[in-house]
Amino acid sequence: MKLLLSMFCSLTLATSILLAADTRDAAKKPTTQPTTQPAKAVNKFCAVEQDQEIDPKITYVWNGKTYGFCCKDCIADFKKNPEKYKNAK
Fold first, then answer.
1. Region of residue 63 (phi > 0: left; psi between -120 and 50: alpha; otherwise: beta)
2. DSSP code of residue 46
3. Beta-sheet pairing, 65-69 with 55-62
4. Looking at per-residue confidence, does 68 or 24 come out higher?
5. pTM of the model
6. For a tag site, which of 48, 64, 70, 86 has the least CB within 10 Å?
7. Which pLDDT does position 26 carry in this prediction?
8. For residues 33 and 58, what is the distance between their CA atoms, to the nearest angstrom?
9. How far apart are CA 29 and CA 5, in angstroms?
10. Which long-range contacts (CB under 8 A, 24 or more apart) does 24-30 make?
11. Comparing 22 with 69, which gets the higher pLDDT?
């Protein structure tokens, strides 16, 4: 009887350890997949240099909207006064 009780306790302990390890691994995984593509810009022309077309790789998100720019320097200008450039076309 002691042998049977000992085996039962060992089996229960081993199962608990395996379940705890599986739960820990699941907690390390992200719950959502990261996006690989930036959101599409709301404008076709640079928000600052409005006669230049945007480079789709150069974007900045402000107030939940993605704005496109012709170069990274324009992002710095936009950040200084976004209200001035927020209505870009």
1. left
2. -
3. antiparallel
4. 68
5. 0.56
6. 64
7. 57
8. 22
9. 37
10. none
11. 69
Which residue in 78, 79, 45, 72 sits closest to 58, CA to CA? Answer: 72
Nearest to 47 by CA among 14, 22, 71: 71
**E strand or H helix at 57, and its extent?**
strand 55-62
Question: Six-digit token pair at 82?
Answer: 């976004």
pLDDT at 3: 74
Residues above pLDDT 90, as percent of the chain: 45
How far is the C-alpha of 74 from the C-alpha of 80, rounded, in Å? 10
Residue 53 pairs in a beta bridge with: 45
AA identity, residue 74: C
Q: Which DSSP helix (H) or strand (E) runs through 1? A: none
Rounded to whole angstroms, the Cα distance separating 26 from 23 reads 5
Which residue bears the tokens 């450039």?
85
Closest-CA residue to 45 (of 14, 80, 79, 74):
74
